[in-house]
Amino acid sequence: MNTKSLIVVVGPTAIGKTSLGIELANYFDTEVISADSRQFFKEMSIGTAAPTAEELAAAPHHFIQHRSVKDDYSIGDFEREALAKLEELFKNHNEVIMVGGSGLYVDAVTKGLDSFPKVDPNIRTELKNELEQKGIATLQEKLKKLDPDYYSEVDLQNPHRVIRALEICIGTGKTFSSFRKDRAPKRPFKTLYLGLTAERELVYNRINRRVDQMMEEGLLEEVKGLYSKKDLNALNTVGYKELFKYLDGEWSLNFAVSEIKKNTRRFAKRQFTWFKKNEEINWFPYDTPSEEIINFIKEATID
To answer: Could you give the residue ranges of the DSSP H alpha helices within 135-217?
Structure first.
């Protein structure tokens, strides 16, 4: 019986993961699962750099713009749905490609979600009140003191993740990190990780160019169309929250665009930090010919 292989392409934003994923899917005559949590939402296309219509037509994709920003869609939902889709795809394919820059979502599929103890729900209520009264910076400082390891890799601008970590720290007296990956479940497939990398300055330059391109493609109009929903969690993300501030009259357009670039660069830095901790990732320069990567995969997946 052939071993089924999930080939996972990771790396920072704007590095070229989508293009490589399509090339691999075409070579292995298979399909692509996206593990980019920002690309799940159909109303968010330009600002998330979702695959274009041409790219989606070049290879079958799953979990791209399949939800609305109004939907409650958790990482646990994605884990269950992605595993079910993999079971279906592996009936006809020996390899499936997963592409994503959301490390937590990749890990949910390949390694399983972490198991956390229940804590007093009043802790979360108090933290939310503190967020409203004092702002997220106060919570960030708490997390830095209580769990510096998680502080170094979490999206510090995401209040839901910061509060989730803090409630575990406060409720258990232990770090949030200590509960992670305690008992990884066995998956019915082999995982092969491929990482694309480049010098940080090159990545940052690519990010800056991409943001300029997004603005040219109509990002501001996309954000205007979502303004009435700006308080939804899905829209509390880079590329949208900055332009909401422009629409609110708090920032100039030039400053908002510069903040998108800065925050995207910070996001890429966190991606580097997250993925570098995974010693199973096989790293390739971003401009490595796809033929070289395909040959590596063929050798690595031979039973």
So the answer is: 136-146, 148-151, 159-172, 200-217
CATH for 121-179?
A: 1.10.20.140
Over the stretch 171-227, which tens digit does the pLDDT of each residue have? Answer: 999 999 888 765 567 899 999 999 999 999 999 999 999 999 999 999 999 999 999
Residues of the chain with CATH 3.40.50.300: 5-113+182-300
Q: Which two tokens stand for residue 184?
A: 């990884």
Are 97 and 9 spatial neighbours (Cβ–Cβ below 8 Å)? Answer: yes
- The whole-angstrom separation of Cα 149 and Cα 117 is 19
Phi, psi at residue 224, to the nearest 5°?
-60, -40
Query: What are the φ and ψ backbone dihedral angles of 34, each rounded to 5 degrees?
Result: -90, 135
DSSP single-letter state for residue 41: B
Which tens digit of pLDDT belongs to each residue from 74-117? 888 999 999 999 999 999 999 999 999 899 999 999 998 877 88
CA-CA distance, 100 to 102, in Å (whole number)? 6
Percent of the chain with pLDDT over 90: 82
Question: Environment class of residue 240 by beta-carbon count within 10 Å: exposed (0-12), middle (13-18) or buried (19+)?
Answer: buried
Q: What is the architecture, at CATH level 2, of domain 5-113+182-300? A: 3-Layer(aba) Sandwich (3.40)
